[in-house]
Hints:
Shape: elongated
Number of helices: 14
Radius of gyration: 27 Å
Strand order of the largest sheet: 8-9-10-7-11-12-13
Structural class: alpha/beta
Number of strands: 16
Bound molecules: guanosine-5'-diphosphate
Amino acid sequence: MAERIPVLAIIGRPNVGKSTLVNRIIGRREAVVEDIPGVTRDRVPYDAEWNGKAFTVVDTGGWDPDARGLAERIAAQAEVAVQAADAVLFVVDATVGITDADEAVVRILRAAGKPVVLAANKVDDQRGELEAASLWNLGLGEPYPVSALHGRGSGDLLDAVLDALPEAPDDEDEPEGGPRRVAIIGRPNVGKSSLLNKLAREDRVVVDDASGTTVDPVDELVELGGRTWRFIDTAGIRRRVREASGHEYYASLRTGGALERAEVAVVIVDASQTLSEQDTRIISQAAEAGRALVVAFNKWDLVDDERRYYIEREIERELVQVAWAPRINIAARTGWHVDRLVRALDTALEGWETRVGTGALNAFLGRLVSEHPHPVRGGKQPKILFGTQASTAPPTFILFTSGKLEAGYLRFVERRLREEFGFAGTPIHIQQRPRE
Length: 436
Ligand code: GDP
Ligand code: GDP
């Protein structure tokens, strides 16, 4: 269900034509390197697309002038590339042939075991094909003759690249069709079935198992705001015996199962009572499951001014970690403000599926790194080199770093990401891939 954009790293000696090839692949649609401040020159990611498949190209083109020997620099470059990528495009200059440096790269690539596509570049015409064939000797399989400069052979090369990458998302398709899947969860007696009854009262499309194949019998399809929604495991909500008899264990199993199948969770809490540990545990469970989240404070009809005061304090104290989740105050029994649920669900799902373009993300990261560098630890200063959003639902970011970022700094990055790009109603996952 979640999209995952694969990463292709381009490596090769200087002057073999990597930048030219990258420009050909991305069709020069994105900002050139110099326009992205703060991002290390030698590892810049670009959004690319071929045959409707999206992937991220990481150009490892530049060379660190401070590094020592050529072999070491090549090794370092290849290792970063391998770490960062799902597949590697290794570019060799066919007019020069195989050099020692190329062979050093091959050893690293072979050890890493990532899929490799070999480009024999600067094959500008038919005659060059012969030179390209000599690159079979690298032992990396078929060399794809290409002219990055003129475009010759680039279609076949990109076809091979797509084959090497893990299943890339198809840009034309929605992640998954059908009604949105909503789980209503919460501890016993907060008002889950009351809400469900209110929502389903007149517009219930399918109640039970009679309809057979298309609808899972434990779900209900409900029409809200002109659209159909699938409420997950409503049978479990209605079958109240176990919960009522205090078997919290079964309740939490049900919650886990519902979350598993849902896209968005509505956690109901009883606003007339102090937030309990069980409430906050269920809220965390939803966020940790990577689902979009709405928190509904039910039984608002029982909330007076004094209680309202305490609720605000409880929210500040207990719900800071999900401060991004839309909150609604409702009274399920009377239906008061229940109509606000749809807007909250839409907000949460929109945040959940937000994708930030690689260019915008790295412009943002560049600013963040220069304005708020990571604190120095033990004489070293970890640094974000670049990032990509690997998937949506929930938004998942991979940061390629030098050194390991501290948890506090990662939280800071998350906070700034939210300020910059929104992400209301969704947890954000941030993974780092440090290069030591
Ligand atoms: P990088 O250092 O690997 O990024 O290499 P560049 O992309 O900067 O290219 C180095 C030089 O090779 C430039 O002068 C390019 O114009 C040239 N070049 C790149 N691709 C080709 C090609 O397919 N054919 C020819 N004849 N020259 C190329
Ligand atoms: P569940 O166990 O979470 O499904 O909770 P129920 O929907 O069965 O509700 C538990 C109790 O809370 C019932 O007595 C409901 O009538 C009551 N209740 C539900 N919603 C409201 C509400 O908005 N206001 C008030 N005052 N009571 C409610």
